[in-house]
Specification:
Helix content is about 30%, strand content about 40%. The chain is an alpha+beta fold. It has a five-stranded mixed sheet. The chain is globular and about 30 Å long. It starts with a strand and ends with a helix.
Length: about 80
């Protein structure tokens, strides 16, 4: 399970479950997660529109990760 914590206006807690190739997105913080991703809404939007890459955001400390960092690497390889 991936937990996202988006900070700022329009942010909140969200999580994704991945099971047998099916991705389900839900609002709210999960009780537990394999990977917790914390970032602000502006960074989230820049990642989604392609103006910022995940490695660049991480190196600039705009994204904080905790949990299974191998999962973060796999996620980056899958979605860029």
């Amino acid at each position: 399970m991936l937990a996202f914590e988006l900070l700022g206006d329009g942010g909140g807690h969200f999580h994704l479950t991945l099971c047998e190739g099916l991705v389900t997105g839900l609002s709210g913080a999960p009780e537990t997660s394999d990977l917790h991703i914390r970032l602000d809404v502006t960074t989230w939007r820049e990642l989604n529109d392609g103006s910022l890459t995940a490695p660049e955001a991480f190196l600039r400390r705009r994204v904080q990760l905790s949990g299974d960092l191998r999962l973060a690497v796999k996620l980056h390889l899958l979605i860029g």
